[in-house]
Structure formats: C-alpha cells, structure tokens
Write the structure tokens for this entry.
Amino acid sequence: MNTADLGLPVDVPSTALFTDQYELTMLQAALRAGTAERRSVFEVFTRRLPNGRRYGVVAGTGRVLDAVENFRFDEGVLGFLRERGIVGEETLDWLAGYRFSGDIWGYPEGEVYFPGSPILRVEGSFAECVLLETVVLSILNHDSAIAAAASRMSSAAGDRPLIEMGARRTHELSAVAAARAAYVGGFASTSDLAAGFRYGIPTVGTSAHAFTLLHDRERDAFRAQVDSMGRGTTLLVDTYDVTEAVRTAVEVAGPELGAVRIDSGDLLLVAHRVRQQLDELGAVNTKIIVTSDLDEYAIASLAAAPVDAYGVGTQLVTGSGYPTASMVYKLVARAESADPAAPLVPVAKKSSGGKVSVGGRKWAARRLDEYGVAEAEVIGTGPVPRELADRQLLVQLVKGGHVVAREPLDVPRRRHAAARAGLPLSATQLSRGEPVIPTEYLHGEAGS
Amino acid sequence: MNTADLGLPVDVPSTALFTDQYELTMLQAALRAGTAERRSVFEVFTRRLPNGRRYGVVAGTGRVLDAVENFRFDEGVLGFLRERGIVGEETLDWLAGYRFSGDIWGYPEGEVYFPGSPILRVEGSFAECVLLETVVLSILNHDSAIAAAASRMSSAAGDRPLIEMGARRTHELSAVAAARAAYVGGFASTSDLAAGFRYGIPTVGTSAHAFTLLHDRERDAFRAQVDSMGRGTTLLVDTYDVTEAVRTAVEVAGPELGAVRIDSGDLLLVAHRVRQQLDELGAVNTKIIVTSDLDEYAIASLAAAPVDAYGVGTQLVTGSGYPTASMVYKLVARAESADPAAPLVPVAKKSSGGKVSVGGRKWAARRLDEYGVAEAEVIGTGPVPRELADRQLLVQLVKGGHVVAREPLDVPRRRHAAARAGLPLSATQLSRGEPVIPTEYLHGEAGS
C-alpha cells in the first residue's frame, strides 16, 4: 500500500523531500569514502520528558511506515537536486534506485515511553538509514506530543467523550495528524473532515455563532438548524443571553433536543445553571457540551459539573504547552563493513553540554512489580535477562524493507488505554512530577 | 494556477476537506432556511497578541490564496460526505458546483498587525464564505505564529544570517510552511529540501554527529566530507573534543575551510575559543555557525560573540512559546438578501466571558507621527478620514473569485523588513511589553 493510493490529504508522490539537506551530502561523502554501506543502527529516543510530565505516548508509528514505503526519489525530486547542485550524478543515480531494505523495530503505537526508551530502531546500511532521519523525527515528534496531551485530557475527562476541534489552530495537515494522534490518546471524535476521510475517525459538528448572527432572531437560527438536522442536533446557546437561548432552544426543538453547547463564560457555573434550567424544562436527556480553550486542568476542574462532553482545540493541537516531543535520531552502533558477520561497534557522541547518548543496539522491557504494575523501564545492550524476556517492548515493524505491522487505528487506541492503566496510579496525576517509573540501564553501558 | 500543478509536497487534489464538519451542516441549514445567499462579511482578527509580544506578523496569505482557488468538492470528497451522511443530496449538489466567487481583502503578507487588526476580510454569500473558515484560520494561525518568532530572531541576529533547521521538530508539512514563514520573517535559508523545492527558498546543510561516528576516526570523516564537498564545507566539531576537532579540521581542509559548526556546550565561551584557535591556525576567514536549541534570547546573548550564522530549529517551528496566533474568523456584517443594494447590518456576539467582537465591515490604517513612525493602528467602519486615506492597510487579494495579488516570496520578506522598520524602536525589544502601538477604533462602533 502506498500513501498516494489513499488520496487526500496526504496525496504526495513521495516523502523523500521531507529531508534535511545534510542527509544527502553526508550520503554523498560516505559513498565516495566507501563507508556508506557500513551496517548501522540508528535509534530514536528522547533524553527527557517535557517538564513535569509523568510519561510519554508513542504516536505516529503508522505514519512513519507510510512515509518509509513512500520514500522514493522520482524524476521531479532528482531534477530539483540536480538543478540546485545539492549532490552529484553518482549520488543521484544511487538515489534513483533508493528503497529502504533494512529492518525497523519500535515501541508499538500507543505504548507509553520514558527518558531513554528506544522508541524506534532503524537498521540497515548507513546510507539507507541516514536519509530517514528528518521524516521519522517530524512524524514522531509531532504526533507523540499531541498524543501525550490527548492522553492527559482523556484521563482527566474519565468516561466523558472528548471531541478534537483544533484544526483551525494549527497547520491544515498537522491538524489531520493531530486528530489521528488525539484518537490514539483517547479522544472519541474530531470536527476535521480531512481526518475523517483519511483515517476513518468519527466526525462531529455543532454550530458557530456566525449561524445565529446570520439570522434575524436566534429563534430563526435554531428553527433552521432543527429543521435541517433534526431534534438530536446540538444548539449553540451563548451568542446573546444563555438563559433565554436555552428556553428558546427547548421551545423550538422540544425536550428531545440533543445537546446545547456553551463556548464562553465561567463554564462550571454556567453548566450548573443550564442543567438546572434544562431539567426544569423537562429536557432531562439534553446533553451539555462545553468548549472554550479547554486543557487538561480545565477538564479536571469540570469533573463535578454536569457536563456530558468536552470539545478541545488549541491546547490539544499545541500539545498543551509542549508542541514537540524532543526525540532525536542517533547512530548508536555500526560495523566496519556491510558484512552481517562484522561485529557492531557501539558509538556515541562524547558529552559537551549535557547531550549524552548511550551507545549500542538496545532492547527495552518494562519490569512489573508483584501486583503487575510497571516499576521500571529497563534498557540494555547485552542479552535480555530471562525474567524480562516476555516483557520486551520493541516489535518488528519493517522486515527487509517490507512493512509487517500495519494495524487499524483502534488497535493503538486500545493499546494506549491498556499501557496507561498498567502504570502506577500517580501516572495520571496532572501535577508536575518525575517520570512515573525510572529508566534503568542494564550492564551500565553509558558511553560505551 | 492550481496548487496541484506545483507538485510536492502540497499536491492535494482539493483543500475542501480542511473543513470543520459544522461548516457544512450550517450551510445545509441555511440553504433550507433561505438565508444561505445573504450577502455577508467575515473578518479574521486576533483579540490579543501572545503575552508580552509587541507586534504580530501576517504570514500565509499566499497559501490562503492557493487554498481558496483549490477549494473544490470533487467526486471523492462528495462520496465521503454522502457515505457518512454528513449532509443531504441537495447540499451535495450545491457543493459540487462550489467555486468561491466573492472578494477577499487583507493585510498584505509580511505586514505587521495588532489586536483587532482586520487581517483578512472575506465577502460574498454566507454560504460561500462560511466554508472557508477552517482552512483560512489553519494557514494564518500557523504561519503567522512562525513568522512572528522568526521576526524576533532576525531582529536579534542583526546582519548575521539565520538558517531554519526545525523540520524534524514539527509535522513534515508544517515544516515546509514554517520554512516559508521564517523566510518572510527574515531567515536566509532552510535545511528542508521540500521547502526549497516548493517555494524556492535557498537550502543549506552541514553534517551530523552520525557522520563522524560512522568513521573510524574524526579525521577520516572530515577528509571524506572535504573530498566530497570541497574546502568550503562546514565541519561539525563537537563530536569528541572541540579543540582537537578544530585542529584536525584545519589540517584536513587547510585555512580555506568554509566553516565549523558548534552544536553543544556554552556557545558564547566555545565560540570565542574556537575563533581564537582558528585565527591562530591562519583560518581567519573560516566562519563559525552555532546551533543547539537557540531562541531569540540566546541569539541576542551571542551578539558579542564571534559567531557568523545561527541555525535555529525547535524554537522557530514552535513559534518560540506561541505555536498559534489565536486568530478567529467572525461574521461581522450581513444583509437581508443577496441584493448588492441591501444594506449591511453589523453583527457581533454579545460578550459573556470576555470574547468581545466588534461588528461591521472594517477598514484599517496605520497613523504615523511627524517623523514618519507608526503611532496607532486605526480601525473603523465608517468613511476613512482623508488624512488616513493613503495609509490604508487592506489590499484586494481576490476579486470576484479570481486571485489578483499573487507575488513572489521575496516581496513579503522585504515588506516585513520595511514594516518592522516603520514601528517605534521599542518594537524589537525582546522583553515583554504591550503592543508597540495602540489600536484605536474610530466612531467607537464596539458592539454596534
């Protein structure tokens, strides 16, 4: 399957231009030096979680697989590189035949992660792996940041559904990926039609103030909406006066009115008043949807309010303060040649300024306590201890260039809920703190 | 010109799915109610600048024009809407013939803006205008946020060039738009090949730690890079020991070495040491490029350091703390019918929670003081005072559905530099403060 077959809005003939120029010039230099084919291992990890966060959420893995499959240098791309003189003919010839033929392992999408977790491991020749750096990081950094915010919000919302409404606050295609990541993180639906089209996420909609203002009276607007959408629709009740609007809404739609939306004011107070008014009017099943710059803290503060659903925009698509996940893509081991028998040598940048990396091809496992609750993220480069063998986190995603782990989006969504439920209870505290479980390095290979 | 003709990476057959579902259901309700054709005016504005910022930067206008031209409901899109039951057949028929046929006026791209500035004004029938809300806001909110950060950074950098390197920290297509907005805001180049391909922005690249680690010795890596790229290349000198790396770099490339890059450590200190060492080695023309989580404050703090260029990633593509510009798209006036002679009635949501909007179709002008420096953003709904007639800010972008103001990207880039230079000097102070000029409403139409 090629992403180009999937149509809008990711209908790009190739992902190969989502690449920083230095990846191509490093390739060219390595080709000339005879080092390009050295067997190499790159890993994606983050040195730290955003300040105070207890866990991270892996998201975007499915999009990474699409991007890798679709990473081709067609004539248009090659012509651009030639015209700009970015690399020479020999390198262009090599790129024309490019297909990733290596292996990729990774934390499955929806899994939680911690500082140092080897979220993705890309193995192959240096040449074929180095080219994927930018596109892999773009996807994982963006999508994981959104999923982490979504997870905190869905945890704060409990059983009440969350609607993703942030498309207008971010780049039009980020919005589509954000809706996808939000769904993985526990959101129920999105207002973004492109996300519905592309990923099959349930879409929903209410009404805007403009619709009320278009009409001569609020009553006319409500009548028009109910005539068109039926009594089950959601009427926006805060264009003029909320109390009057709620009365009008129930008069127009009857007590079968589906829901009302409140988009401004002190939501806690207004929700209580509106609930009481709806009940008094006999609209006991009419739901209340609140929107208006909600984040996980605002959602939590409304836990005791008579609210049935939350619409979240800005704070979701901007990662609730942390719009990127600060993951890096680092060479951690390489051999002296392409020979599969040549030993892998761990490599790592020496620190100058705190940017320590741990060399070596890694495994990871989550150790549980006697009650089955996670107690440590264990990362190592040697053999996996027997007691952790069935707790390993990395799964094979690509084998010899072929994607082997595609899955429908409901799978990572359920996986995330299960992974979060397996963490200590303090994982879902919203207050700032340390990662909820420590990262332990087995054999202490730091810098080896 | 259609964006689809422009190829990668915005090759999507239509932008019509970058739409929130409620726009379509409002359309359907208005069609049935007979109000869909009412002549309407929508405006894009922001109620406030990000906390402490002195001015905003309009960016994305050119992309908005592409999106509006490309906003079509083809069979694939219509089939999706039908299958999901989002709107009925009558509405689908209307959408099949959709072409925006109205007028769009706006602040030209690169111009600065302030709270309340009518950055874009979209005029036509309610039906044709309401559909554009999400895609217009997505583009302007994202691109303007990035351009504002870029402008602060370019102001802090003075004459030293800035390189955009943030692709890996944001969604792969946001990255392309971010490179474009950064260029408008004063950046000189980008590392993102897709941005070079799509918008003709100059691209540059250096080398990564992985390239050094791939080789048996740092010297081998430097030799390979110089053999491939020539002596004018930029060598990365902080993989192991900076002093030794600089010595090796000059030994390998000679004093003609183009530049060295430093990506970690105390950049101020390291830059001074490296400059001294390069000079002692006779490499007096070798430049120093610094990277490593720079923002406008870090750039300003390096003003006295011997640095020749800055590479900026994360903080640029995340808007340096403000990843979205919080612009809204509001109905501000509408007539009782489609008749061009029917008077426009100003409309606005009544406040409940501070979300005040000012009704009426607006003009804007920047009043200058006796020295030609901006002193107020004047916004009004009545006739334009004679003394402000030639200081008006809105220009026509679309006329009767046709784009009339396309321009190459260097034009908004120069326009921004000129607009910023026309503000009071305190505009470019990095410290927090109020908008550098006040917004004045003429005729005091608030809420009228």
